């Protein structure tokens, strides 16, 4: 009988420890979700609404998606508060075929300049492609009075040429939503 009681006590202790560990994990997940939600509220968001044109002016691809960034918040960027920009770009041919998605990530900011009514952000980013991500792509993001942005891929290297060719060499246009 003593053996049964010690086994029962062991099982009860094990269950209590397991429940405590699960509660700790749930609390940790909820805290991380709240932190991400707070961080996302500090970001400006927008929609991609664009078309890529070929030389004769006919639309080949329709682009849609979402972007988020802290570029447009008059923030000073540094090592502890880096500039952020990410996007998901959905592409489909105008006839509805070949739908696919690209992710813009690994954003780095090198230079900010203002001319007339536009602020230009320059640096590098990565874009996911069918064969994997292409890193270090030079870009220009122009902000037109917190209403519209254009994303241009500029100064590419020969191994990045497939990205520019895929996007047609014209800017990707986006609108602010908040």
Distance between the termini: 69 Å
CATH class bucket of the largest domain:
Mainly Beta
Given as residue ranges, the uncertain stretches (5+ residues, pLDDT < 50) are 31-38
What is the oligomeric state here?
A: single chain
Helix tally equals: 2
Radius of gyration based on Cα positions: 24 Å
Main structural class: alpha+beta
Spatial strand sequence of the major β-sheet: 1-2-3-4-5-6-7-8
Question: Top keywords for this entry?
Answer:
elongated; alpha+beta; eight-stranded antiparallel barrel; 2 domains; single chain; Porin; 46% strand; 2 helices
Could you characterize what this model shows?
This protein is of the alpha+beta class. An eight-stranded antiparallel beta barrel has the order 1-2-3-4-5-6-7-8. The model is unreliable at 31-38 (pLDDT under 50). The chain starts with a helix and ends with a strand. It is built from two helices and eight strands, in the order αβββββββαβ. The protein is elongated, with a radius of gyration of 24 Å. It has helices spanning 2-41, 161-166; strands spanning 44-53, 59-69, 85-93, 100-115, 118-129, 132-144, 148-153, 172-176. A hairpin with a 3-residue loop joins β6 and β7. It has two domains: 1-41; 43-176, Beta Barrel (Porin), CATH 2.40.160. Helix content is 26%, strand content 46%.
